[in-house]
Amino acid sequence: MTSGKTSSAPDDVTFVFLDANVVAKPVTRTLLMVGASRSGLVVGWSATAEAEAARHMRPNATRPADVRRRYGGELAPTGTVAGRFEATDAKDRQLLADAEAAGARFIVTEDVDDYGVDDLASVGISVANPDLFLAARLTREAYSMVIQRFVELQVNPPTTPAQFHAAIARNHPRLFAAHADLYEVEPERGIHGEPEVIFRGARCLRCERIIADPATIIDGLGPECR
Q1: CA 38, 42, 46, 52 torsion: positive or negative?
Q2: From the CB of residue 192, how many other CB atoms can be counted at a distance below 10 Å?
Q3: Can the peptide bond before residue 157 be classed as cis, meaning omega within 30 degrees of 0?
Q4: Which residues of the chain have pLDDT under 50?
Q5: For a disulfide at 119, which of 41, 42, 85, 164, Cβ 3.0-4.6 Å?
Q6: Other residues' Cβ atoms within 10 Å of the Cβ of residue 84
């Protein structure tokens, strides 16, 4: 996507697969896409995710395909034998197969609990809620750059970086908290509560290592990264 992602990720690149429900959210999608290259990440999605996201977006919203082409990105490959992921919700099995085919280490989704623990272990992928992932992996430089990009585009009505930072807290309170000292501003009240399940898998969000005992992972971080 934004950092030159093509059809699959080289072994030395951290590829992050976006679920359809994240692709359909413009602000979250932009935070991930624009911030990726300055955070050591590459993000993308498959034809499966793109088609599903397009079906759930408002008629006047920018289509995911148009966003992808704007940044010169290509679709991730389509995986095979999705039916083997029996512990995963039926509607998400193809997405997991696609993420595996792309060499993804992480899937970012609003529905973490749709992915089966055993299925994730079999492919070495961890699944994380967008707010949790962004708080753990988006660098200060990347976050500041994305805010500035939003502010430049928001002309009616205009907004300041501090105001946009405060607004981020409505949907991404963990991300706001991670960079709370960037501007002297109070966070806006959250729109909804955090899901009960925000992380699944054995791969630590920060160091990316597979943790022998996944039960020791708290909020996506292994013992040595907390």
Answers
A1: negative
A2: 7
A3: yes
A4: 1-7
A5: 85
A6: 13
Gap between the terminal Cα atoms of the chain: 30
User: How far is residue 75's CA from residue 68's CA, in Å, rounded to a whole number?
Assistant: 8
- Residue (of 94, 130, 92) closest to 110 by Cα position: 130
- Threshold 0.70, pTM exceeds: yes
Per the DSSP assignment, residues forming a β-bridge with 42 are 15
163 Cβ neighbours under 8 A, 6+ residues apart: 185
C-alpha dihedral sign at 118, 120, 121, 127: negative
Strand ordering across the sheet containing 42-44: 42-44, 15-18, 106-108, 126-128, 199-200
| Size of the chain, expressed as the number of residues it contains | 226
Question: Using one digit for the tens of pLDDT, what is the confidence trace for 83-92?
Answer: 999 999 999 9
Condensed to tens digits (0 to 9), the pLDDT of residues 158-175 reads 899 999 999 999 999 999
- Closest to 50 measured CA to CA, from 94, 104, 81: 94
Question: Which residues lie closer than 8 Å to 136 by C-beta, 6 or more apart?
Answer: 128, 205, 206, 220, 221
Query: CA-CA-CA-CA torsion for 180, 127, 1, 25, nearest 10 degrees?
Result: -60
